[in-house]
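Morning!

This is the sequence you dropped in the shared folder:
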Amino acid sequence: MTLTLRIAFLRVVILVVGVLVGGCSDGLPSAMDVESNFRTALKPGDSAEKIEEYFQSQQLGFSFDKYQDRYQSIIRSPSTDFHAIVIFVNVDAEKRFKSVQVQDSYTGP
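The structure's back. C-alpha cells below.
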C-alpha cells in the first residue's frame, strides 16, 4: 500500500470514528428526528403551499427541483464542515406531497 493510500485510509478511519464517537454532538438534530417531524407535519396530498409553509416555519431554506419533482433543503452543522442533513420532499405533478427522504451527509477533508 502506498503512502498516499495509507493517508487516505487513515482519514476515512478518523472520520468514521469521529462520527461514531461524536454522534450528534455537532449541534444537528438526528436525520431520523427531522424525517419524523416532516412526516407528522405533512400528509400525502398536502399542497405546495403547506409544504413551503412548513419549511418556513422550521426556518429552513429550500429550493424546488423541477426535473426531479422535489423540494430540497440542507441543514448544515454549526460546528463542522463535515456533516449536514439533506432533505428531499417528493411531490406529484401538481406539487402535492408524496414522501420525504432525510439523510445524513458526511464529507472528508
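Headline: The helical segments are 3-22, 31-41, 48-57.

More detail when I'm at my desk.
O.
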